[in-house]
Write a structure and sequence with these properties.
This protein is 11% helix and 45% strand. The strands form 5 sheets. It has a 9-stranded antiparallel beta sheet. The protein has 2 domains: 39-171, Jelly Rolls (Sandwich); 177-437, no CATH class. It has helices at residues 2-32, 43-46, 56-59, 174-179, 385-388, and strands at 39-42, 47-49, 60-61, 64-65, 74-81, 85-94, 99-106, 109-116, 121-130, 134-145, 152-159, 183-187, 196-204, 214-220, 224-230, 236-243, 261-265, 270-274, 280-286, 294-303, 309-316, 324-331, 342-347, 357-368, 373-376, 378-383, 395-400, 403-408, 420-423. It contains 5 helices and 29 strands.
Length: 439
């Protein structure tokens, strides 16, 4: 009887050992079948909410996608691939409790992925086929969840033939990366011009390119900038700013002798101080300019005898009867005529960094102190650190249909060489302005 019991005990032990070994072998086999995904694209710097971008401020942080409880939220994580071919996709994520089922889509190919576990772990979503290189995204949706949130996603992990080569995505300074690259056109003043007193420019924003967060800057100069913006669904502004000679991001710290002084302003114009990207005097006029219409910008710079330079900005459009005074400021510790004429296009909202915006800049002129107008038809295209570091490659500028243009954000694949030179057609349409009648 004792022998029989012992034999039964040994048999049960062997069965348990065999089952444990089998389970381990199955786990190892499962791990071996997962392809290598060594590239980590941080969700914190490369993710936007589809259809409702401003909702991203609630769930997208530097650490990735967090506090995601709304089933209607759909996320896209962007990156630029060097090749076509197979793309292995993983989601480095965790859930607070239970099991969450996600829908993972690449190029209209969707797969379901179940995620569980309170510790971050890379979950293999599947292999997708990419037919051409360039910008792509992994789209993530929530299908079901047992806990309060779907998942916390730190990274998308990638591997496969499509990743063989140099890839592009935001891997540092997420704030600037999510805003997207800023682009500039620096205009060449004809050599025969003397000191520049006035700078004239025109901007046309095509329909559909007026994305919230866009600043279409027309008349930039050595000490400030002047253009217009899209601030919300219901508000747009014409903005004119002059930097203080005191370098700080906190306007309250500027000494009185370094402050920008307001000389006068137009009706309905708000004036004050600005900070965060340098500091100084700022003015803006709430005006709902219209896509497709061409608007004129006129800037004046005059050195004064008291050690100041005075800058004045006027705005005009087809809906306005005449030039509109925005503001006139005095800047201390400088006596100069206008220098460094340029334009730029930037996005100032991280939530709209996945949306493309574009504008045409045309008919640039300067007026010198000898009373002559000169047309500027040559410009140098440049971009900011986000572009130069190759965190984002969706930037372009130059000449299109004989007109200067700039475009940024939206993850398009055409990229203009930074520091390249461009020349537009000369229009010969000199501005007709009675300077003495300007408000």
């Amino acid at each position: 009887m004792r022998i029989a019991s012992y034999m039964l005990f040994v048999a049960v032990c062997m069965l348990l050992i065999g089952c444990t070994s089998c389970s381990k072998d199955e786990q190892e086999s499962e791990t071996e079948n997962i392809p290598a995904m060594n590239i980590r694209v941080p969700a914190g710097g490369n993710t936007w909410v589809v259809d409702n971008p401003f909702k991203g401020s609630q769930t997208i942080a530097d650490e990735g996608i967090k506090s995601w409880s709304d089933k209607s939220d759909k996320y896209r994580i962007y990156f630029k691939l060097p090749k076509a071919g197979s793309l292995h996709v993983g989601i480095n994520a965790k859930v607070n409790s239970g099991v969450s089922v996600l829908k993972i889509t690449v190029n209209d190919d969707a797969k379901e992925l179940s995620i569980s576990g309170k510790d971050l772990r890379n979950h293999f979503a599947g292999t997708f086929e990419v037919t051409e290189p360039g910008y792509h995204y992994v789209e993530v949706e929530g299908l079901s969840k047992e806990g309060g949130t779907f998942a916390e996603i730190k990274d998308v992990t990638l591997g496969g033939e499509a990743t063989s080569g140099k890839m592009y995505y935001v891997n540092e300074e997420y704030y600037w990366g999510r805003r997207g690259p800023s682009v500039h056109l620096s205009y060449k003043v004809p050599e025969q011009a003397s000191d520049i007193e006035y700078f004239y420019n025109e901007i046309t924003v095509p329909e559909g390119e007026d994305v919230i967060g866009s600043y279409y800057m027309a008349n930039g100069f050595g000490e400030g900038y002047f253009g217009f913006q899209v601030n919300s669904d219901v508000e747009r502004r014409v903005l004119f700013s002059v930097w203080s000679p005191y370098h700080t991001d906190d306007p309250s710290s500027i000494p009185d002798e370094d402050k920008i002084k307001l000389v006068r302003k137009g009706d309905g114009v708000t004036t004050g101080e600005f900070g965060n990207e340098g500091s100084g005097g700022q003015s803006y006029w709430k005006y709902n300019w219209i896509t497709g219409n061409t608007y004129q910008f006129l800037l004046k710079g005059t050195p004064l005898d008291d050690g100041y330079t005075q800058y004045t900005a006027w705005f005009k459009g087809p809906e306005l009867d005449d030039w509109k005074l925005i503001a006139s400021f005095k800047r201390p510790k400088i006596q100069t005529w206008l220098t460094s004429q340029y334009s730029f296009l930037e996005n100032f909202h991280t939530e709209t960094g996945a949306l493309s915006r574009k504008a045409y800049y045309n008919n640039q002129w300067v007026y010198d102190t000898k009373g002559n107008w000169y047309e500027m038809t040559e410009a140098k295209f440049t971009a900011d650190a986000t572009a130069r570091k190759e965190s984002r490659m969706d930037y372009a500028g130059g000449v299109e249909n004989g007109i200067f243009f700039m475009r940024n954000c939206g993850f398009f694949n055409e990229t203009t060489q930074i520091d390249s030179y461009h020349k537009r057609n000369a229009l010969g349409v000199q501005p007709v302005i009675d300077f003495n009648s300007l408000p």
